[in-house]
Amino acid sequence: MEPLQLAIDLARQAGAYQMAHCGKIVRLEMKGPTNPVTDVDQACEAMIVQGLRAHFPEHAILGEEGGALKGNDEYQWIIDPLDGTVNYLHGYPLFCVCIALLHRGRPECGVIFEPNHDELFVATRGGGATCNGTRLRVSTSDTLLQSLLATGFAYDRERGDLAMNVPCFNAMLLHARAVRRDGVAGVDLAYVAMGRFDGFWEYHLQPWDIAAGTLLVEEAGGRVTNMSGGPCDLFGTEILASNGVIHSVLSDVIQTARRGAA
User: Fold this and answer.
1) Domain 3-135 adopts which CATH fold?
2) Which helix (H) or strand (E) segment is 162 a member of?
3) Domain 144-261 carries which CATH code?
4) What pTM was computed for the model?
5) What is the edge-to-edge ordering of all strands in the sheet holding 238-242?
6) Which residue of 80, 102, 162, 261 could cross-link 167, Cys pair, CB 3.0 to 4.6 Å?
7) Dihedral, CA atoms, 202, 204, 209, 212, nearest 10 degrees?
8) For residue 70, what is the DSSP state?
9) Where in the sequence of the chain do the CATH 3.30.540.10 domains occur?
């Protein structure tokens, strides 16, 4: 089976499992004071890993719940089996499955499945991005005043994430049409790719949060960088994604807000 089709099949299977078990959580653990993991997270990751191992046993795998499984140095799968666990736990109908395949550190294919709305986002490097088979293009908004933005706040509050992003959030409230915070970075990036959001920024995400989504945005004609406009490191600490038109303005607002808060 081709890697992309396998990722699609596994994402759909995990999404179906999530919908079937929503409101029926058996086990809840805490990775931090506000960072839960459920038996559904773990079951979905086990399902995805088993499928990947069956077809590509030589590939490395990095999953949010299971850690790293070694393989060759060229190919690595990055998995978030349930992005938006807090939403899922509270019955808030927005969460997703994220699966990406990296080749020598670069995403080559990415899949995000949001089962509440049955939206399957797919991207391949050089092959474009789609939602349920329809080609995606980023928005054409050219000012922040016309833009709907999204952001998020990491769970590790002791690390200073709130102090870092609150000034940026406040600044964007003054400059943008509106700012959303739904707690699902994978969906946020997919929405940038399809033009629902015009831009997205966040600090201290993990590679499984953004690997698939960054490829979606790029293949839909958008831009993904760090906050200052430099290359985005999937294993780094910050991401800024947009339709490309408002990118430099977004970066300027963020950097100005951070300097003012220092």
Assistant:
1) Fructose-1,6-Bisphosphatase; Chain A, domain 1 (3.30.540)
2) helix 161-175
3) 3.40.190.80
4) 0.95
5) 178-180, 148-151, 199-203, 238-242, 223-225
6) 261
7) 70
8) -
9) 3-135
